[in-house]
Amino acid sequence: MTHVLLGDDDTELSELLTEYLTNHGIHCDSAYDGVEVLEKIKAHNYDLIVLDIMMPKIDGLSVLRQLPTLTQTPVIMLTAKGDEIDRIIGLELGADDYIAKPCNPRELLARINAVIKRTTAQTTEFAPLNHERLELDQVHRICKVDGEILQVTGTEFDLLVALLQQQGNVASKEWLSQTVLQRELQPLDRSLDVHVSRLRKKLQPFHEDPIKAVRGKGYQLVL
Q1: Which GO biological-process labels does this protein carry (predicted)?
Q2: How far is 220 from 64, CA to CA, in rounded Å?
């Protein structure tokens, strides 16, 4: 059974989401402030963390900054509707996705399933992907550049896989959104751009412009 940590100080919303997710086969733990979130992450191995940005004691973004030293568990951020700056910061700090509050439980369930699906190696049938300086181990989800392990999030790994599969061709934003984020590209959704920007920065020590933005078309991996 999928094990999810739900970090939100809104007890009413937490109870609603927990009941819905439990009825759909997901085991939920709840935490109502940032300190409790960190304590539970240290004590348990979760498949996914749902994290509200506005939390007491330690806010969600501060929690997110600490996560790389504690766990590689994927994160979905809960943000206030229309608060684009917090969404972008959350994605830049390594969140895999976000959803605006008040959120529909059905949409959250769909996002949870999509993130877990794309960040979990299902079987050993995935062969390693190699291209010049880049090596992707799809079973253990390890990325290496020039033989050196590069720390990437689950979404960034899937983005690399998708770009590498294009064999140097331009990948459209629409295709990348469907393939990596598993949803249609929306006009005001900058999630894909933020993930690409974050991944580009990680690759820049190895190449000045590792992922080219082709205006009006999409992105091209040139590493």
Answers
A1: regulation of DNA-templated transcription
A2: 29
DSSP output for 79-94: EETT-HHHHHHHHHTT
Q: What percent of the chain has pLDDT over 90?
A: 61
pLDDT at 120: 66
Residue 67 DSSP label: G
Instruction: Find all residues with CB under 8 Å of 113, minimum gap 6, and list them.
Output: none
Cα(174)–Cα(178) distance, rounded to whole angstroms?
A: 6
Return the exposure string of 123-148: e unless at least 16 CB atoms fall within 10 Å of the residue's CB, then b: eeeeeeeeeeebbbbbeebebebeee
**CATH assignment of 2-119?**
3.40.50.2300
- Predicted TM-score (pTM) of the model is 0.73
Task: Provide φ and ψ at 144, rounded to 5°.
Answer: -125, 140
Fold for 129-221, please state it. Answer: Arc Repressor Mutant, subunit A (1.10.10)
